[in-house]
Design goal:
By secondary structure, this protein is α+β, with helices and mostly antiparallel strands. The chain contains two helices and five strands; from the N terminus they run βαβββαβ. The protein has a single domain, classed as Roll (SH3 type barrels), CATH 2.30.30.90. It has a five-stranded antiparallel β-sheet with strand order 4-3-2-1-5. Strand 2 and strand 3 form a beta hairpin. The two termini are about 20 Å apart.
Length: about 80
Amino acid sequence: MIIAQTTLDQLTPGQRARVKRIAGKGAVRRRLMDMGVIRGVEIEVVKVAPMGDPIEYLLRGYHLSLRRSEAQMIEIEDR
């Protein structure tokens, strides 16, 4: 049985979610964690660039822009 994981890049502007886990490895994972993307943090999608990359998020009171490929590494909890 295959269970599809919901990732941060699948949200649309205005939606919120909580981080479940970061699937990336190495430097990218460490960088995301250093920017405050850790388990349990609530993230809101602010806006998406016209071509879909980057995506602007609001977390912990500040705005963070991530590439779509980086957002795909962040699994979120179903709401």
